[in-house]
Amino acid sequence: MAPVERCASLMRAENINQLNPGAPVLVGAPKAQTDQPGVTKGGAVYSCDINSGSSCSQIPFDLNGK
Predict the structure, then answer these.
(1) Secondary structure of the chain in HEC code, one letter for each residue
(2) Which domain of life is it from (predicted)?
C-alpha cells in the first residue's frame, strides 16, 4: 500500500484539501528503507499530492547516512 493510501485510510482527503487546497501532505514512514549507505530502515518522509491520488516522493534529508 502506497503512503498516500495509508494516509487516506486515516484521514479524509477532502477535509485535508479544504485546509489548504493544492498543498502537499507530509507522510512519515518511521521504518522505511532508504538508499542511505550503512543505514537499515532509517525512516523517511514523503510529500504526497492528494489531488493526484497516488503521487508521493521521498524528501531527501540525509543522503550520506551520517
Answers:
(1) CCHHHHHHHHCCHHHHHHHCCCCCEEEEECCCCCCCCCCCCCCEEEEEECCCCCEEEECCCCCCCC
(2) Eukaryota
Q: What is the pTM of this model?
A: 0.61
C-alpha cell at 36: 542511505
CA-closest candidate to residue 4, choices 31, 22, 24: 24
pLDDT tens string 8-61: 555 555 556 566 667 788 888 888 888 777 877 888 889 988 777 667 888 887
Beta-carbon contacts of residue 47 (< 8 Å; ≥ 6 apart): 24, 25, 26, 27, 56, 57, 59
Contact 27, 45 (CB under 8 A): yes
